[in-house]
Amino acid sequence: MFTHEHIALQDGVRQLIEKEINPYLDQWEEAEIFPAHEVFKKLGKAGYLGVNKPVEFGGMGLDYSYEIAFCEAIGSVRAGGVGMAIAVQTDMATPALARFGNDSVREQFLRPSIAGDYVACLGVSETGAGSDVASLKTTARKDGDDYVISGSKMWITNATQADWMCLLANTSDDKPHRNKSLICLPLKQENGKPVAGVTMSKIKKVGMWSSDTAQVFFDEVRVPQRYRIGEEGMGFTYQMRQFQEERLSGATRRVTALSDVINDTIDYTRQRQVFGKPLLDNQAVHFRLAELKTEVEMLRSLVYRAAGVHMGGGDMTELASMAKLKAGRLCREVTDSCLQYWGGMGFTWENAVSRAWRDLRLISIGGGADEIMLTIICKHMGILPSRAV
């Protein structure tokens, strides 16, 4: 799938990661936040935050295969929270804006996000509406030329550092799939202080420590209607399409992360002596690692196939859902199996496999739980029960 140009892109991304990101991860993990503006500016200056975004707004304008190559490379960040935060900027909060936003709103929000001057976040999930997006309660009522937003959003990655949010809110009383709009919601004033009516509560998580995650509250927050992305009432449709790129991005990054976990475990078990020989020499160990590697490579092939369908103008929903499902299951299987071979050391904080074990458990939950992926796949197979949503 990749040409020399794709490989050159990946080499550049990995070099930046090894110089500007991986050496600082331990301190960012301990602080439970990383300097998003500083890191994103370096990525933006190199052009990596707009690989497949429009050239007229600062992007590279490359096809989607280059974004997949970029996602693979970002998977080499050795802390899931930072890689996830970058993916929010490139594959979660901006695809709909790039595709459906008018030139004015793209100039105001997309260009600085591609440049790394703005940090973006995505506001979809709520305390009572995670995977069930249609039931979200946050409203944006019209008042003159403005929307007035009330409600809250949950599990918001990048929230405490974000300059703006790609917000999904109810803008009418129409049916649940037709009453929602995507809105670019500024979160900071020019002086850096929060926009009036916006408050946040940071969330402490099991993993992904270096990613700042918060619940965000909106109390009569005003935003111009011209900040809406595309047509009013089309937000649910736009977000469902945006979800597909988010899910495939997540699966792609985990191909690299899981390969790294396996390789780290090979190195460790080769060095660890048990009963006078390397642990890796046990057939049960090296056979199991071979099985896991095979599964990861099958996931990589599924990712490439889904990307090919997307590039060809087809609907990748079923394949992206399969890739997301398989990635989540493998994140649990690979990290747990490999941690076992690290013995007591695997149950400490000071190694890559235990961090991956904590971080990657999220993949079966975030961005659509495994059960939602199974429901989507069943829908495409035509086997949903008659009363299923």
UniProtKB/TrEMBL annotation:
Residues 3-117 form the Acyl-CoA dehydrogenase/oxidase N-terminal domain. Residues 121-221 form the Acyl-CoA oxidase/dehydrogenase middle domain. GO terms for cellular component: cytoplasm. Its cofactor is FAD. It is an enzyme of class 1 (oxidoreductase). SUPFAM superfamilies: Acyl-CoA dehydrogenase C-terminal domain-like, Acyl-CoA dehydrogenase NM domain-like. PROSITE patterns: ACYL_COA_DH_1, ACYL_COA_DH_2. Residues 233-381 form the Acyl-CoA dehydrogenase/oxidase C-terminal domain. GO terms for biological process: fatty acid beta-oxidation using acyl-CoA dehydrogenase. Keywords: FAD, Flavoprotein, Oxidoreductase. GO terms for molecular function: acyl-CoA dehydrogenase activity; flavin adenine dinucleotide binding. Belongs to the acyl-CoA dehydrogenase family. This is Acyl-CoA dehydrogenase. It comes from Achromobacter agilis.
